[in-house]
Amino acid sequence: MAGEIVSSVEMLRKLVAFDTTSRFSNLALIEYVQGYLKGHGIDSKLVPNEDGSKANLFATIGPNVPGGVVLSGHTDVVPVDGQPWVTDPWTLTLKDGKYYGRGTCDMKAFYAIGLAMLPQFLKAPLKKPIHFALSYDEEIGCFGAHSLAARMASEVPKPRVIIIGEPTMMTVVHAHKGSQSYVTKFTGFEAHSSMTHLGVSAIHFAGEFIHYLNTVQEELEAAAPKNSEFMPAAATFNVGTIVGGTAGNILARECEVLWGYRELPTRPIEELGERAKKWLKEELLPKMKAKHPAAAIETELRASTPAFSPEGNDDAKALAGSWSGSNTVGAVVYATEAGIFRKVLGVPTVVCGPGDIAQAHQPNEFILASQIDAGEEFMKRMLEWCCRN
Ligand SMILES: [Zn+2]
């Protein structure tokens, strides 16, 4: 059976047409990729989520030996709801040297280019394998990458380098902050707002917690390294949403705070969260309970993405730099799957891919046509390297 031959742009058009917003299944895209690989004689393995509604995919091109390259990308995209799109987000549209569509830069272009080059990979005398690794649910907490990396660690001969193709304009990113998020539910006791001695307002105590986070923030900023690659240099807290209360004249019984932080690679990702939970339990809860014994505080972890440390990535930096032609190496503050892959596979990793993060998650997301060319050049140089001993 002759496999499908498509250009990078045509492959991107096909991938963009699958609405893989994280709340939906990604299986239609995964099945398409699986069928495309199969058409070229390549078997892929799927790693499904618990209810089977989504799956990761990995596949190896070339010899099944150690020392290969992993090309990693996520299949899901962020929602387009409420965004003022000028073109249909699911139809790749070329205008003035830019390809518009949801997922063009974040991040279907990277593996569209790799998949489109599959016939060239197969024709080449590969000495080192090329592995595709596609995940689900990156955008809502990197949930798929954990099981994907774990399966690859046990089934794929140890690779030499992992490339996470998030948009960096083909520069090399060797570190990023981690991300941790929690929801804390404060339960108070309702009373008339004039009778503050009879109840306990969940909102007022949630406010104290937010003040506590600000205090820790000031402490972190004062202690932040002076010549940091990260901007901002310190770990940073954010309270994303607050929901609570029923009326202006009632002490609020409930208040829910969604909060989290972006953490440096130098501190365990859980540490600030554990510290905040201890403060809630030992400092704030007794104060609430002193007002009314029904008061309660519950904190639940929502998502955790480890930071990506620059340690031990020199090999990947050198290789990705030579393939991309970029000698810019930097750090970013947004999280990717790099920290997970780096940790689970224990292989030098970098983030390097086409497109600009400034366009990610935006209405009218696009990738420059010249970035697709740059991505193709990267893959060609990588392929040459894979054919050497
Ligand atoms: Zn992304």
Automatic annotation (TrEMBL):
Cofactor(s) essential for the protein: Zn(2+)
InterPro entries according to UniProt: AcOrn-deacetyl, ArgE/DapE_CS, Bact_exopeptidase_dim_dom, Peptidase_M20, Peptidase_M20_dimer, Peptidase_M20A
Report the domain of life of the source organism. Answer: Bacteria
Q: Which residues form the Peptidase M20 dimerisation domain?
A: 175-285
Q: Which UniProt keywords apply?
A: Amino-acid biosynthesis, Arginine biosynthesis, Cobalt, Cytoplasm, Hydrolase, Metal-binding, Zinc
Write down the Gene3D superfamilies for this protein, in alphabetical order.
3.30.70.360, Zn peptidases (3.40.630.10)
Molecular-function annotations in GO: acetylornithine deacetylase activity
Its EC number is: 3.5.1.16
Give the record's family classification: Belongs to the peptidase M20A family. ArgE subfamily.
Q: Which PANTHER family match?
A: ACETYLORNITHINE DEACETYLASE (PTHR43808), N-ACETYL-L-CITRULLINE DEACETYLASE (PTHR43808:SF31)
Q: What is this protein called?
A: Acetylornithine deacetylase
| Species this protein is from | Reyranella aquatilis
What are the top taxonomic ranks of the organism? Bacteria, Pseudomonadati, Pseudomonadota, Alphaproteobacteria, Hyphomicrobiales
